[in-house]
Structure to design on (241 residues):
């Protein structure tokens, strides 16, 4: 995808990283990473870095700055005690897997990624922020309903789903905060970057783990090293007769 996109569009004004999975049974991505942080973070960092030339080009254009928005969650407050597990073995440890803590870890990683990226591209006229969109009426909780049904009761799971859906934001409204960080004129004019927003477009402070500069650098380095190893492996396989 990135190569075909860049061939068609040399400039990218806004990138919104919104792919997510929440609360599934333990599993691994095709590339061997725990499913939630693999989908919600590793894939986002890899995609962003592959599209960075187009973001830089847009940032240097008269339309700049360009923007990157990482869609996080208030669930980032509920991560593992150390915030983010900083080696692949611990990330992939099925015996200590907690589906909600792993989700919180992945959403914490979204904020740490946005803050680190903001520092790394500060001279490229690219603004990078993270948002909590609110509880949204989507199918994000599709893996949790069967879990609750099995461990509590089907009727309670159905009641809980209906209750949460009724109290959730419509996607049209929930998208407003990430639209603000993607294209908001006041945010661009004020060059707000490395920040965290709650709905609707309200800048606030994330958890203490999310403000840990050492953690964000170590997460970046681990993610970069692993994705590079995966890409190198894929490339070597493609060259094998």
């Amino acid at each position: 995808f990135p190569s075909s996109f860049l061939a068609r569009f040399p400039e990218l004004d806004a990138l919104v990283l919104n792919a997510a999975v929440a609360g599934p049974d333990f599993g691994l991505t095709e590339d061997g990473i725990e499913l939630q942080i693999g989908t919600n973070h590793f894939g986002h960092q890899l995609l962003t870095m592959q599209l960075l030339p187009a973001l830089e080009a847009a940032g240097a254009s008269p339309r700049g700055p360009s923007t990157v928005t990482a869609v996080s969650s208030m669930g980032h407050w509920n991560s593992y005690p150390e915030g983010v597990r900083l080696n692949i073995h611990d990330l992939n440890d099925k015996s200590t897997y907690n589906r909600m803590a792993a989700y919180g870890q992945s959403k914490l990683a979204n904020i740490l990624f946005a803050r680190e990226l903001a520092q790394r591209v500060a001279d490229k006229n690219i603004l990078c922020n993270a948002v909590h969109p609110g509880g949204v009426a989507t199918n994000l909780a599709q893996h949790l309903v069967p879990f609750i049904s099995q461990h509590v009761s089907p009727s309670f799971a159905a009641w809980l789903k209906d209750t949460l859906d009724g109290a959730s934001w419509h996607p049209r409204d929930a998208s407003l905060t990430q639209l603000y960080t993607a294209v908001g004129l006041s945010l661009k004019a004020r060059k707000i970057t490395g920040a965290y927003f709650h709905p609707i477009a309200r800048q606030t402070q994330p958890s203490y783990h999310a403000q840990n500069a050492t953690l964000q650098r170590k997460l970046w380095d681990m993610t970069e090293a692993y994705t590079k190893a995966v890409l190198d492996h894929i490339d070597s396989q493609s060259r094998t007769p």
